[in-house]
Give the backbone structure.
Amino acid sequence: MSKGRAAPPRAVERVGVSEIYGSIQGESTHAGRPCAFVRLAGCPLRCRWCDTVYSFDAGEVLTIDAVIERVRALGLPLVEITGGEPLAQPGCAPLVAALCEQGFEVLIETSGAYPWDHLDPRAKIIADLKCPGSGESHRNLLDALAILRPIDELKIVAADTADLDWALAKLRQELRGVAATVLWSPVHGELAPADLASWLLRERAPGRMQLQLHKVIWPEATRGV
């Protein structure tokens, strides 16, 4: 640096945000816990049954400090960063690190199509294994999914028994021995929960079944839950 020349200002990280709100965690092993949700905007995937298509828009651009201020105002120690696809935004990683530094327990819900090895290791990953019925199974990062940690979770949303059989084959082959908790969910209106339960019992599939608790509590709400 030349003598007398000021150092350039550090770039301020920003993220596009669809919504920030407090709710009851509806999925994962954390279901039922009060949680602050940061829904980042934008998603390159187009899963057939997506229920947050409103997050595809650019959203409101906020600095990381502004996001943390809004999260802190909610007064909830558990924070989930979701989307959209949060990892599609370069600002997601510094946001995760900043929340961890502030002492929040951080969950990242991701499609499983973007790498997460650059994230603060204190954050817990909830990654999808996209089944063929979603239309996005070609996006799965199987090598990354295979090394999910015991604190992480692998979510499988199935539309039918063909999806279930496909996912079970992945768990027995490419994902054999995965340490993360496996979560099975039915697509609402396509696979009856009782049918999923019967299949899990018949196949002795690993993991646990889950339903979307927030949709049970607020069946008519489409945002902010």
